[in-house]
Design brief:
Elements: H1 47-76, H2 85-100, H3 102-112, H4 115-148, H5 150-155, H6 159-182, H7 189-217, H8 227-253, H9 262-278, H10 280-290, H11 300-314
């Protein structure tokens, strides 16, 4: 019964205990060993699980190609790269890795039913839980310093600083994912909750500060804004929208866990909440691509048609 609620107990799953070597445990008569199943405990309550699987299917159909396109664009533009591109590249790579694990998830649900495959999936869940909020925070930090502390930003423009910060985030990500894979840590879900709440708070601070800087940059009686600050505000605002839409719903349900029955929370509430987090693997690259004036590697006719449509919407009525 320790493997109960295995599939969507992404936080506190504990491996079944194993007896010491060279010992035997007598089994009661007329009993058969039940094979490991990631659906165990939710066999008759699969609606929430199906919803999350549909979202993960969207990730592999839309999110995986979009993340690969983002990585290709960043490599193509590496000579004219932005200071945040290293964080964007790491984020796209992690989301692409999470998308590649979707077929493994389906195969393990319906065919393999393997504990080893489940542990690999748990590691990918840990990577997804941590890499998104932390790398988004790094992008926000980069824009924050660029707008409010331009002199310090000029001194810290070297790639070495951002590579070091990215390495630190990757280290924290893999440490969190490893701890989740091992499982059994008490109150482990509070780490994720605190992480997302801190990220959300930081995003709000970034937006407020950059908006304040934008207002100060306007001339008397004029509405024009500094182009760099205006671009930075749009970037951070899009990041805040991602945090609110994709990460906050999951965090919001954790304080009310005790108000639901264990099976209802595990089979319905938790998978739907994680579905909002999982779909960020598609939303994040699409938001980045939408900010580009021209998307490389696309047919010229499609690009012209898309740009013509944007100009028509921007023209005054």
């Amino acid at each position: 019964m320790q493997a109960r609620y295995a599939f969507y107990s992404r936080m506190n799953y504990t491996l079944p205990s194993t007896p010491p070597p060279n010992t035997t445990i007598p089994e009661p008569a007329n009993t058969t060993s039940k094979p490991f199943s990631v659906f165990d405990g939710c066999d008759n309550m699969v609606e929430g699980i199906v919803f999350d699987l549909a979202v993960q299917t969207f990730n592999i159909v839309v999110g995986l190609p979009a993340n690969i396109l983002v990585i290709a664009i960043l490599i193509r533009n590496r000579r004219e790269s932005s200071t945040s591109d290293i964080f964007l590249g790491c984020l796209a790579f992690m989301d692409a890795y999470f998308g590649l694990m979707v077929p493994v998830s389906f195969l393990n649900l319906y065919h393999w039913r393997s504990m080893k495959a489940w542990m690999a999936l748990k590691f990918s869940y840990g990577v997804k839980d941590t890499s998104g909020p932390l790398f988004l925070s790094c992008i926000c930090l980069d824009r924050f310093v660029a707008v409010l502390f331009p002199i310090a930003f000029g001194r810290l423009k070297a790639t070495t600083y951002r590579a070091g910060l990215a390495a630190l985030v990757l280290g924290l990500t893999f440490a969190y994912a490893s701890a989740k894979t091992v499982g059994g840590l008490p109150n482990f879900e509070k780490v994720f909750t605190a992480e997302v709440l801190a990220t959300f708070t930081w995003m709000v601070v970034c937006n407020t500060s950059i908006l304040w800087a934008l207002k100060r940059s306007r001339g008397a009686g004029k509405d024009e804004m500094h182009p760099m600050k205006k671009k930075a505000f749009k970037v951070v605002l899009s990041l805040l929208a991602i945090i609110v839409c994709n990460y906050l719903p999951l965090v919001a349900v954790f304080p009310f866990q005790d108000h639901y029955s264990p099976m209802a929370f595990t089979c319905y509430i938790q998978p739907v909440g994680f579905a909002f987090l999982n779909i960020s693997s598609s939303i994040q690259p699409l938001v980045y691509l939408s900010r580009l004036e021209r998307v490389p590697f696309q047919p010229g006719s499609f690009t012209k048609m898309f740009c013509r449509k944007e100009k028509k919407q921007a023209s005054p009525a």
